[in-house]
């Protein structure tokens, strides 16, 4: 009974901003809500890429490993894959791609899952470094991050487009991660040039946010919307 | 199979701000997602109060009527009622009530449904006046609104508390409507003094937003988050 008509998100991007990095959902439970998606692990430990029902962690040391069902995440977005658009990509770089996709597939005010499978002339990622409590803020924790790059890499970009109105609850605009086919390269996508690739888009009418309302730190935090907006623009672009 | 663990919202408060007042969900479909809630009708036509599976419209002329299944709404929030808190209310006015409820039931970062049944020493409401296309903005449309008041009125307050992070998607903070037991008085709640009343609260981990992604005006609109924030604070408080 996989519902393909909504995005399920655990937590908010906003809760990462003051440093609420403790995992509050298990990977096992998360995967009951989707087979594809992105996130981060307990302690802001790397970048999570979920493809075909398997969750992978791109670590700050450059390694990629599969995540066990009992590991936890403070933030993740998932959906069950059933694209409604499948097309070759003409844009060669990320900036052109984002502009074209929003225009051609009328994403401006719509949630959508983005998946690109192909060969990339160049690809560049970064990986959030694992934090220890007491946690720094997101901006402090991500001030220096290891970056990784490759040439002529086969792999998959996966992530989401969200309307700007939902900035704070999630990342307004694009939020994309990458995993190479050989699992030698992964992380938060910083840029790419395409050799040849196929784009899949899945539009959603529904966005469901699941909040960690039993987590004491979450209940107590005094969030500030302006701080969250600025921090997301700094840490997640 | 009524899911009592989430709020279902059709549309966003944000889409009302530039004047997207056309109804995009039928009352019949809305009631499949909840038996309790609030909203507005096509054309910003009054205030909607949903109690015990019936949807009512408080009109600008002061009349209250039940809404038919084929009438449409641009914005509404509903849930299936199953309160986890039931308590007498000690606060006598709305400002004290809101402060106490957020503190006592730890709502700050949590979605919750609020229901108050009782007798009100005074109660004051306002009702948005019906608009005709081409629509004005929300602030323009609600610049002058009829207000209604009563003394020693029996009735029900129903609505929601939402975390401030979701301002724009919905109203951050409280958004409450009122309907008297005799259906002679209703609308958006502006203030009350309690004689005796019982409070019911239902905490939610999940908030699901359903967007009108087949509506041309919605797809085309260029929303601005700051404008939306200011307009909600002006029109919905």
TrEMBL record, chains A, B:
Biological or metabolic pathway of the protein: Polyol metabolism; (R,R)-butane-2,3-diol biosynthesis; (R,R)-butane-2,3-diol from pyruvate: step 2/3
Assigned keywords, A-Z: Acetoin biosynthesis, Decarboxylase, Lyase
GO biological process, one term: acetoin biosynthetic process
Reactions performed catalytically: (2S)-2-acetolactate + H(+) = (R)-acetoin + CO2
Domain of life: Bacteria
EC number: 4.1.1.5
Keyword Lyase set for record: yes
Entries under PANTHER family matching the protein: ALPHA-ACETOLACTATE DECARBOXYLASE
Family per record: Belongs to the alpha-acetolactate decarboxylase family.
Protein name: Alpha-acetolactate decarboxylase
Organism name: Lactiplantibacillus xiangfangensis
